[in-house]
Design goal:
The chain is mainly alpha-helical. It contains 2 helices and 2 strands. About 11% of the residues have low confidence.
């Protein structure tokens, strides 16, 4: 009886309209009706919780997918930057190698020219010596000055 009174005090919960005589409709709770309403409320709560669980799982799935997409985009960007860096580095190394090769060729050509100069001067000296020895019969002192500049 106390439960019926408690339900009557809170007419907004677990009450159904019933007719009591000729007067207006009065809200009254029956035990079976109250139990049915409690079961319905529990079921609606289960449905809401299930819907919230589905929504939560869906949100987590979307977030995981987005994180995967974002990390793939970040990785693609990182690889693009890395490829650009490698291309630039390779080009600079190639350019440096070309400059070093050019400098080495220039040094080699200077050395080659110096060797030709020395050979020419030596041959001239030997020829003069032979001509002088043949003409005068004695070898004179030769002052040979060769300057080689290699840069």
């Amino acid at each position: 009886m106390e439960k019926v009174e408690a339900l009557r005090r809170h007419p907004a919960h677990n009450c159904v309209p019933t007719l009591l005589g000729p007067g207006p409709m009065e809200l009254q709770a029956e035990p079976r009706t109250a139990a049915a309403v409690a079961i319905q409320a529990w079921w609606r709560g289960q449905l809401v919780r299930r819907a919230l669980q589905v929504a939560d799982a869906s949100a987590r799935r979307i977030q995981a997918w987005w994180q995967k997409v974002a990390s793939q985009q970040k990785e693609q960007q990182r690889l693009k930057v890395l490829v650009d860096y490698v291309r630039t580095e390779r080009a600079s190394v190639l350019l440096q190698a070309q400059v070093r090769a050019w400098a080495a060729r220039a040094r080699y050509k200077r050395c080659q020219e110096a060797a030709r100069t020395i050979q020419t001067r030596w041959r001239q000296h030997v020829r003069r010596q032979e001509q002088g020895t043949v003409a005068s019969g004695c070898a004179g002192d030769v002052d040979l000055l060769v300057e080689v500049f290699l840069g």
